[in-house]
Specification:
- The radius of gyration is 22 Å and the shape is elongated.
- It has two domains: 92 residues, Serine Threonine Protein Phosphatase 5, Tetratricopeptide repeat, CATH 1.25.40; 86 residues, Immunoglobulin-like, CATH 2.60.40.
- The strands form three sheets. The protein has a three-stranded antiparallel β-sheet with strand order 1-2-3. It has a three-stranded antiparallel β-sheet with strand order 4-5-8.
- It has five helices and nine strands.
- By secondary structure, the chain is α+β, with helices and mostly antiparallel strands.
Length: 186
């Protein structure tokens, strides 16, 4: 195991870790970088994006999804190269658990007054497997839910729609929809 400075490129993460002292890189991962990175994020009221990104990567490798998400959220708002990379990692970790956070939706009516649901991919990656749930009251006054799949893949920033055939729906009224599933398209 050769010791490398933290500013050197890590064989695991491919990005500089942070300006800290020595970090050992082993075949199974980075050893003891937490001790070196975490105090700097506590002392500095504005911790560096590279430090949070590295801590997110380490938490992800260790299987600590929630901690990784928290670090990536901090970096994603910073913009730049690290912000973009963190946003992508955040989406990879969180999209399936919280699809509504990354896929916006809206409702409109077709020419026959049926509900059309449109979704917009707000991520930086192409997604697929998008499913929306429509909540409505049936003829007997009971609450119902029906799921609809959005076919195909949706590139970053793009919109896709599905005509539910449910109606009548008045455009501009409450949009009784939630996004219940989405995944990164491979």
């Amino acid at each position: 195991m050769a010791a490398k400075t933290a500013m050197s490129r890590s064989r695991i993460f491919g990005l500089p870790l942070a300006r800290t002292s020595w970090v050992k890189v082993s075949p199974v991962g980075v050893t003891n970088p937490i001790r070196r990175l975490t105090p700097s994020t506590r002392r500095n009221p504005l911790p560096t994006a590279p430090a949070h990104f590295a801590l997110g990567d380490i938490a992800k490798v260790r299987g600590n999804r929630d901690e990784a998400i928290e670090h990536y959220k901090v970096v994603s708002s910073a913009g730049g190269e690290y912000g973009q990379a963190a946003t992508t990692e955040l989406v990879k970790l969180d999209l399936t658990a919280n699809p509504g956070t990354y896929v916006n939706h809206g409702c409109s009516a077709d020419g026959n007054g049926n509900l059309v649901v449109s979704v917009r991919n707000e991520t930086t990656v192409q997604i697929g497997g998008v499913v929306v749930a429509v909540l409505y009251t049936d003829a007997n006054g009971g609450q119902q839910q029906q799921r609809f799949s959005i076919r195909g893949q949706i590139p970053a920033g793009q919109v896709a729609s599905v005509n539910t055939g449910l109606g009548p729906y008045t455009a501009g009224s409450n949009c009784p929809v939630r996004v219940v599933a989405a995944e990164i398209a491979e």
